[in-house]
Amino acid sequence: MLEELETIRKDALAAIATVTDEPTLEEQRIAFLGKKGRLTMIAANMRSIPADQKKAVGQALNEVRQAITEAMEKTASDLTAKRDAAAFASIDPTLPSRALPQGALHPLSLILDDAVRVLRRMGFALADGPEIETEWHCFDALNTPADHPARNESDTFYFDSGKLLRTHTSSVQIRTMEAQVPPVRVIAPGSAFRRDEIDATHLSAFHQLEGLYVDRGVTLADLKGTLEHFFREMFGSSTEVRFRPHFFPFTEPSFEVDLKLHAVGRAAKWVEIAGCGIVDPAVFAEISRKRGDQAYDPTQVTGFAFGMGLDRLAMIRYGIPDLRLLIENDLRFLSQFSA
Amino acid sequence: MKVSLQWLESHLDLADFSTEQLCDLLTFSGIEVEGVESLPDHLVVAQILSSEPHPGADKLSVCQVDDGSGQARQIVCGAKNYRVGDKVPLALPGCVLTAPDGKTFEIREGKLRGVDSLGMMCSAQELGLAKESDGLLILDSEAKVGIPMAELYPTVFELEITPNRPDCLSHLGVARELTALLRRPLKGRRDYGDSQTSVRPGSPSELRLETPGCSFYTARIIRGVKVADSPAWLKQRLKSIGLRPINNIVDLTNYVLFETGQPLHAFDLAKLEGAVVIRQASEGEGFLALDGKEYTLSAQDVVIADEHKALAIGGVMGGEDSGVTEATTDILLEVAHFDPPSIRRTSRRLGLHSDSSYRFERGVDPLQVIGNSELATRLIEELSGGKADPELLTVGSPGESPTSIKLDGDLCRAVIGAPVSDSEIAEVLLALGLKNSTDGWEIPSYRRDLERPIDLIEEVARIRGLDAVPASNRAIYTPASKADLAYDFLCSLRNRLVALGFFETRSLKLISAAQLNNDLANQYRGMNPLRLKNPLNDEQDYLRSGLLPGLLATAARNQRFGQSNLRLFEAGRVFTATPKGDEIEHEHLALLLTGSRNPRSWAHDASATLDLHDLRAALDVVCGQKVNLTPLPDGKLMCACSIELGSGKKAVKLGSAGILPPARARELDLPAPVVLAELDLKKLMTACSRECVFAELPRFPGSSRDVAILAPISLAAGELKDFIETYDEPLLVSVELFDVFADPTGNKLPADKKSLAFSLLYRREDRTLEASEVEASHAKLLDSIRQKFGVEFRQ
User: Residues B690-699: contacts with CB within 8 Å, 24+ apart?
Assistant: First the structure.
């Protein structure tokens, strides 16, 4: 009997070793371990085994069953692994990606979002105002003389109503101070318009970012610190910033801000990037007159204001040589900014 | 304004400063240096002694030149425009020239085609004196051989003077500014105070002032002048700042203008009949000016006239007929002060801008009029041999000195934000020519921009510079504004659209009438568009009242450049007016889709084109919820729909969507269907501003039933879906349309029918549903559908 068991073991293992697919493996399982399988038959005959051999035969029977079962399980798991491997064998990971449509923000939005992010970290809130403005908001309230050239119809777009397309976002300073009492700490990005023919360096509609901080005891030192920090966040912590005295009707003293920038392959160069200054007391006086209160009493509050061209900022940041690229919306241009 | 370094040096010592240092100095005092013309060292005047053909090159010649050293120098030269004997600029070895591209190169001794060449003769372009030039720069025959070229062409700065500083519009003015910056004195200044001039008010038969456009007028008669060429020094000064010398009298008036900033004019006395009258022009009065042009004057213009005719447009330009000529022997020298707004009006209206009008517009110091008249008179006497009448005739008044200003040092420190001592403040103001008195700071008459304490603080900050001020980083907490919320909302929309493959565009807000008429959805056409009063051209004369015109122009442009698969969006402001004329500004969002849905690739079928359903999917993402598209009539869009959130009476209309009519698409050369949507961002933001609230997860499974409805081809799926969704069946929790099928051949379905397959989910919150309950509810629903729409169900 023991010999027969040994024969079954050998036969089974030999048969399993030749199995290459799952149906054959199942056939072999039935042949040896199924209800009428060779090993099952022996187990069914245990009754006829003499009592003194029962223990030895039983033990051998278990050993053989275990050996066959293990071999079968091993083969089954090998077959599964082989099938799994085959399932992915035809995949070529070097094929280019299944293309998803890829979009992008306009570079002006990118630069604007960047600037707004930085300035919000510095405690500025956003402010807004109409683009169709009154002459008072755009010029008078900003201490611009009645016969200033900027008011000329050759420089500014007007409507029959006498209103105009704002020539700068500085009018939002006025809108904000009309509606809010100090402290005021706002930035106002937006469009501005000048009656310029469109060329590589001029647009009749362009984008500005305005800033205003009015509070008790705001100083030139605060203005300097604010803009230095802003430009270093925008253009790198080692960016050199310099302030040149200048003139604007609505700030006194006034400065222009230059950054020392390194365009690729060029020597570092000072680039004019913003205008700024301490809010002229005449602006506060006009606001106080309009408001009819003393919230902006020039002897009580001071403030600083700054403004910069976003189009120019984008040109510098991205090396864009011609402003017209910003309004043409050519996909070959826009797709360069899908970051 | 051009300022010559040599001229400045006649007023103060600058020899110890390099050109670069001076540029910095001016720049940081608020005078921007826009350009510098400066010749390099080792560049001298040379005379060509001989010229022979080059033995080895047709186009070259070998010249011997005199460089002033006493020995002839051999130069190989390619130019042809010279003659032997001409004087030309010669760059000696070591001379560093700048090429037009900004690179510098050093001149060395060398050989050209085998012949020694010990330097380079230069063109005006090579020296940066002209943008273009043809051949060598031929110098004046009087130029002295061997002297540095820089003596003929001294360093010239191109300065931008800010409008508040008219006092700097002269060499004396810039020199004065430099004395303050350098704390060194003006030298050798010819000061002709009032005391030296004998002044007499002109009688009405001599001088009459009849207009407020002129506050002070002086006339000096100089007799027996000999009009001739100016001396070399005067010609050279004028040439150095780009002026063409004319004759000694005219040149001197120009010289005094650029020396002092005071415009002046010389009339030929012989052309004057009777008194000099300063009056308003008569409306429509014609005038032939010095520039040879005829101008038609208005009653607002000021003219200088005699008893019969206008002689000059006051403060702007003299007349062709009354100017100084070679025949002139006696002159009347006008030095006056005109009202800035009046000059500005006249000059702008006539489009006539002169060095004189430029200065009067910005403000000339009336208290210097007499002194400057005296200066000009003396110079004219010196150079022309004329003799001035003993008295200066005047009319009007030069007015008062500026008012003194009191400055509180604490206020100054409060504005600057740095510890500036009172003595530092005083030091700066004194350097600027202010004087401290008991009334405060006395302001020099030429600094009329200084009117308030803040103006003095500005001077202190300007002269000290911001380098000396420590940066501080003061900030406060600010609550989010409405603009903040709108901006954040927009950012989130933009990012979602970009993730869906959209490109953001930014178009011009000014568009044409044709664009307004052709490309706006009906919804945005009802309002009155806003037209500019003074547009640049008729392509940009209206403010956009919607975003679609810009998007379509962008699509057309991209199509022309071979980009035909487009997913575009634009967010921005649009403008309309109410019937009353009040302007309204809205923020809109618009989408445009056209071309293939998928890019051409191994992985996709590229033939499918983007359609209304892609647009709707994008709108779902934009709105963060399913939108409803309700058909609406619109002459400008096909399949036009109103974009709505919610349904029934609560529906919020956000804008409209549709397909560009193929006829318009063909006009724009856009081949594929173009689908469009435009919506109001503020309405969208309001409709989308819901807080997310947690709902209990379902604890019991639901049971779903599918049903295929055989409907007439004309029945809108949305109608069926709406009916099912609003059907009063508490167990029904969701409806999905999962298949739409039609067969135009009529084989599988009648050709006039379509199959719409819905999956319906039934569920109870509190227990598992019995199959019989689901069946009962489902059967009731189907029955209602059948009754309502008269449709059948497919098995």
Answer: B698/B763, B698/B765, B699/B765
Task: Tell me the torsion sign for CA atoms A53, A56, A62, A67.
Answer: negative
Q: Are residues B64 and B167 in the same domain?
A: no
Q: Is B508 on the interface with A (CB under 8 A)?
A: yes
- How far is Cα A217 from Cα A300, in angstroms, rounded to an integer? 8
Nearest CA in chain B to A303: B415
Cβ contacts of residue B169 below 8 Å, gap of 6+?
Answer: B1, B161, B261, B358, B359, B362
Query: Domain end: B343, B370, B396, which one?
Result: B396
Q: What is the CA radius of gyration of chain A?
A: 42
One domain for residues B439 and B512: no
Which residues span the domain enclosing B200?
194-396
Helix (H, G, I), strand (E, B) or coil at B387: strand
Listed by number, the residues of chain B in 653-682 with a beta carbon closer than 8 Å to a beta carbon of chain A are: none
Band (pLDDT 50/70/90 cuts) for residue B630 is: confident
Mean pLDDT of A102-106: 94
To the nearest 10°, report the CA torsion of B477, B479, B482, B484. 50
Tell me, yes or no, whether B477 lies in a domain: no
d(CA A260, CA B710): 72
Cα–Cα distance, B113 to B707 (Å, whole number): 96
Task: Tell me the per-residue pLDDT of B734-744, one tens digit each, with 9 for 90 and over.
Answer: 999 999 999 99
Q: Which of B628, B655, B688 is the last residue of a domain?
A: B688
Summarised one tens digit per residue, pLDDT across range B744-776 is 998 988 999 999 999 999 999 999 999 999 999
- Cβ contact B189:B433 at 8 Å: no
For residues A223 and A278, is the Cβ–Cβ distance under 8 A?
A: yes
**Same domain, yes or no: B489 and B433:** no
Same-domain status, B336 and B418: no
Residues B526 and B660 in one domain: yes
Q: Does the distance separating the beta carbons of B510 and A205 come in below 8 Å?
A: yes
The answer to whether residue B696 is domain-embedded is no
Q: How large is the average pLDDT for residues A279-296?
A: 96
528-567 of B, contacting A, C-beta below 8 A = 530-536, 540, 543, 554, 557-558, 561, 563, 566-567
A292 exposed, middle or buried (CB, 10 Å; 0-12, 13-18, 19+)? exposed
Give this complex's ipTM. Answer: 0.88
Q: A205 and B499 in contact by Cβ < 8 A?
A: no
Q: Are residues B672 and B643 in the same domain?
A: yes
Residues of A in contact with B536 (CB under 8 A): 195, 197, 204
Identify which of A101, A123, A224 has the shortest CB distance to residue B478. Answer: A123
Residue of A178, A167, A177 lying closest to A139 (CA atoms): A167
A42-96 pLDDT, tens digit per residue, is 888 888 888 888 888 888 889 989 999 999 999 999 999 999 999 888 889 899 8
Architecture in CATH for domain A107-337? 2-Layer Sandwich (3.30)
Please tell me the total count of domains within chain B: 6
Same domain membership, residue B221 and residue B111: no
How many beta-carbon pairs below 8 A join chains A and B?
235
Domain residue ranges of chain A, discontinuous segments joined by +: 2-86, 107-337
CATH number at residue B19: 3.30.56.10
Q: Is residue B295 domain-shared with residue B200, that is, in the same domain?
A: yes
Report the distance separating Cα B498 and Cα B199, nearest Å: 78
Task: Calculate the average pLDDT of chain B.
Answer: 91
Nearest CA-CA distance, residue A152 and chain B, Å: 9
Alpha helices in A122-179 (DSSP H): 135-138, 171-179
Whether A127 sits inside 8 A of B536 (CB atoms) is no
At B132, the pLDDT band (50, 70, 90 cuts) reads: confident
In a domain, B126, yes or no: yes
Question: From CA B260, how far away is CA B169, in angstroms rounded?
Answer: 8
Confirm whether B476 is domain-assigned: no
